[in-house]
Design goal:
This protein is of the alpha/beta class and 190 residues long. The chain has one domain: Ribonuclease H-like superfamily/Ribonuclease H (Nucleotidyltransferase, domain 5, 2-Layer Sandwich). It has five helices and five strands, in the order βββαβαβααα. A five-stranded mixed beta sheet has the order 3-2-1-4-5, with helices on both faces. Strand 4, helix 2 and strand 5 form a beta-alpha-beta unit. The longest helix is centred in the last third of the chain and has 50 residues. It is elongated, with a radius of gyration of 21 Å.
Length: 190
């Protein structure tokens, strides 16, 4: 699986590409941070982010995109910008039929460090260790984008098995209800 991890943001948007191997083996393929000036018009900033994400998708051909879900932030304006940046990237992926999954910060932290309340330093240290990098990825947006991709590589198989189990359970319930309706109909006919 080749996953594009995205730490969305208007000022700095982290992009990463990870490839998963056997088990929990992951390899970093590329990393970047898209920067837009705070004094630029919002629509232009979103266009720059979308263009960079589209270039990445067309160049790297990810099989999945993992984006950090805006969970809760004190500053509503920052949360809106983060959500908008994530939205234009999700749209770019949808136009290319690339599945998109949103992961909460605590899911990412938990997957990478084992602690859903880990701080940025802990996440960066574990990303560096997991990927066997010589130096810590900077800025934090780059490390966060890598963490998102790692999280997705490790969670996706479990999420797929859960979806299959839910689908099988729903199908079994449907057959059971159909059989029950048939038994009731036969009982009424007697």
């Amino acid at each position: 699986m080749r996953v594009m991890g995205v730490d969305p943001g208007l000022t700095r948007c982290g992009l990463s590409l990870i490839e998963s191997g056997r088990g929990r083996e992951v390899t970093a393929l590329d990393i970047d941070v898209v920067r837009t000036p705070a004094d630029m018009e919002l629509s232009r900033r979103l266009l720059l982010i979308a263009n960079a994400a589209e270039y990445w998708m067309d160049t790297h051909k990810p099989t999945a995109v993992a984006i950090e879900r805006v969970f809760s932030q004190q500053n509503v304006r920052t949360a809106m910008g983060t959500a908008q940046a994530g939205g234009v990237i999700a749209l770019a992926a949808a136009r290319r039929d690339i599945p998109v999954t949103f992961h909460t910060p605590s899911q990412v932290k938990s997957a990478v460090t084992g602690n859903g309340a880990a701080d940025k330093n802990q996440v960066t240290a574990m990303v560096t260790r997991i990927l066997g990098l010589q130096t810590k990825p900077t800025p934090a947006d780059a490390a966060d984008a890598l963490a998102l991709a790692i999280c997705h590589c490790w969670r996706a198989p479990m999420m797929e098995r859960m979806a299959q189990a839910e689908a099988a359970a729903a199908e079994q319930k449907k057959r059971y209800e159909a059989r029950l309706a048939q038994v009731r109909k036969e009982a009424k006919a007697r």
